[in-house]
Every structure is written in C-alpha cells, then in structure tokens.
Amino acid sequence: MSADVVYLVGGLALLLGVVLPAALRGAALSAPIVLVAVGALIGLLPAPGGERVSPVDHLALTEHLTEFAVLVALMGVGLAIDRPLRWRSWTSWRSWSPAWRLLAIGMPLAIAGGALLGWVVMGLAPAAALLLGAVMAPTDPVLAADIQVEGPTEEAEGAAEVDEDDEVRFALTSEAGLNDGLAFPFVQAAMLAAGGGIGTWWWHWLAWELVGKVVIGAVVGAVCGLALARVAFRAPRRSLRLAETGEPLLAIAATVLTYGVAEVLGGYGFLAVFTGALALRSAERGHEYHALMHQVVERLERLLTLVVLLLLGVALTDGLLANLTWSGAVVAVLLVAVVRPVTAWVCLLGGAAREDRVADGALGPRERVVTAFFGVRGVGSVYYLAYALGHADFGDVDRVLWSTVTFTIVLSVLVHGIAATPAMAWLERVRTPQPVA
Fold it and tell me: If both were cysteines, with which of 196, 223, 287, 389 could 200 make a disulfide (CB 3.0 to 4.6 Å apart)?
C-alpha cells in the first residue's frame, strides 16, 4: 500500500469522523462501531513497508496516545457537568451521591469480580488477575458520549438544565470523570504484586497509592482550575482575561498544565484534570466561554477517538485477538453483561424519594437499571494495560491479556453502542413527569 493510498484512506476516515456523529444521531448505531469496523477493513490491506503499528509491540506509543485521549476527554467531561460540587456544602455532596456510590462501592466490587474471573476462569496468576479486574473496571469517558450530559450551552438557562433533569446522564458522566483516576491505585497494586508478596508492599500501597496520590491529584486539580479561572475571568489586565477575548485554547493548556503539575508532584494526573475542569467550570458558571472551551475539547477528543479506534480496528484484523481463549471470551461476556450491571445496581440501591432526587442524588428503579447497564469499556482500559505491561513484568500472559481486554472493549462498543439510543429514548418515555413547583 503506497503513501498515496494511506492519504486516501486517512482522508476518508477523517471524513467519517466528521459526519458520523451527526448522521447517526437518533440511530441505534454509534460512531465508534463504524470506526472500529473501518479500521478492521483497513487492517486487511497490505501494510506500507510490511510493518503494522501494534499496541502489543509499541507499548510506549499506545500508552501516550491513549493517555492524551483520556486527558482530553476528562477535561471535556469536567466542563460539561453543570452541577456544582461545593466542598463546604453537605447538600452539594449529597447531590453527587451516585458518583460516590459507583466509586466507593461499585468499582471495588467490579475490580474484585473481574480479578476473581481472571483467576478462576482464565487461570491467571493473582497479580495478572488483579490487573485484568482493575483495567476493566472504569467506565470510559471517551466512548460514553451518547450517554453523558451534553455540555454547557451559550445560554446560562440551557446550561443549568442539562444534567439537573437527567440523573442517569449525570451519574454516568461523573463516574467516568472520577473513576479513570481512581482506578490507578488498583493498577498500581497489580504492578506491586507482580514484583513481590503482599507483605512487602501493602502498607505503601494503602498510604501512598490509595490515599496520598489521590489527595494530591484532587488538590492540585482544584488549585490549578481556580487559579486559571481567576486569570481567565478576573485578571486585572484585559489581555489576560481570556473569557473576554474568547480564546478557547485555555482548555487544552489547562489540561496539559494540570496533568503535568500533578504528575511532577506525585499525584494522579487524571484525577487532577477532572477536578481542575470542575473548578474551572465553577467560575462564572453561566458564561458562554465555557461553551467555547467545551467545543474545542470536544473536537479534539473526536479526532483522538478516531485515531485510536481506527488503530484498534486495524489491530483486530492483524492478530490482536490471536491469543483469545474460550475462557477469555467467557470472562469478557461476563464483565460486560454481569459484573458491571450487578455491582453498579447493588451500589445504587436506596436513596431519597423521587421528589428529592436531585438534592439526594437518588435514582428510580428504571434509572438504576440503565445506569448499571452502561458501563462502557474503552480507551482508558487500553491505556492502563499498556502502562502496566510497560512498567512491570506479569510473565508470559501479556498477549492473552491484550486479546481479552480488546475483545471486551469491542463487545462493549457493540452492545452499548447499539443499545444507547433506544435505552435513553425508552427511559425518557417511561419517566414520571416531574412535579410542578
């Protein structure tokens, strides 16, 4: 395949990335499904020079490409959420109840379930099984756009209503924003376990990986977001007030800067980017500048998603699934169809009466089912796997893990991509109308 053909295929793929989101709106088919399928078709063509870009053989490239895609998605998710999180307001914390439950209860249960399946069904060593559970636990912020809040609009009234009236979209969006950072301690636990027995690392993991890095990431994100918001909206010099000049690239600068500061200080950068976006959005919440920043982030995210999904599709037909065993396929189905839905549904049980649902973050029975079902697995899982395998030795199961994780992602893309539009439409139809104040 010549360079000219590469340009032709790349151009057609970019065109698909531009037109698919609008063309498939309202259809029971998502853009990620089409992009993976196109990538798979490209993978059937002869490679230029005979060499493929395989995630297994190019761990560093895979890690950094997916890392940046997740970072951009986290900034977009943070800017999209309109519901405030005020540190000194108990009511505000209660309104985020679905996120706290999904993180504190649902995610550890999902990690345990995935690890148990990897150990019992696939016969993986404990460290590799824990890695599988940790990698497959987070809900992906990149591929879950169809079930997330829509983001800020240029009018304050529109922005204020986006997620306040849709507890399902808010729960899934806030979960996707937070759990990509909070899954990292468990990935680190698997890496530490691969290097020695539990007696040599558990105390370090508990104090530093689980608590210390999380606190640093959250604090760095909040400080960076508030500082950048102060400059953008209230700087003494007009040239620095980017909200007035309308320069939306601040969102990209904030993403990279916040991530860099958090990582240099030893915290979790993913968590810092999300909390930084929340802090940035908290300033002048109804200002149209938030919509401008979100639009830029959304477009960059779309481009990165296009590249990642195309490469994933190419790898599918180029041997990435060659080491998929029957037990790995069974585990993938159970992760998507059983582990996530059951663990999320259990942690979301209970709550306040429906009339107080925004105040208390309560979900009705149907909303719980839909929220529990849509645990989209995607780009974040690829990043975590590439990172772990590039920094620790898990023995000879690398390719088995790649095949299992990839098959799970493709299965999630297919099932959740087809079900997203009809499920959300059904939920809208059966919802009880809100009482008139």
Answer: 196
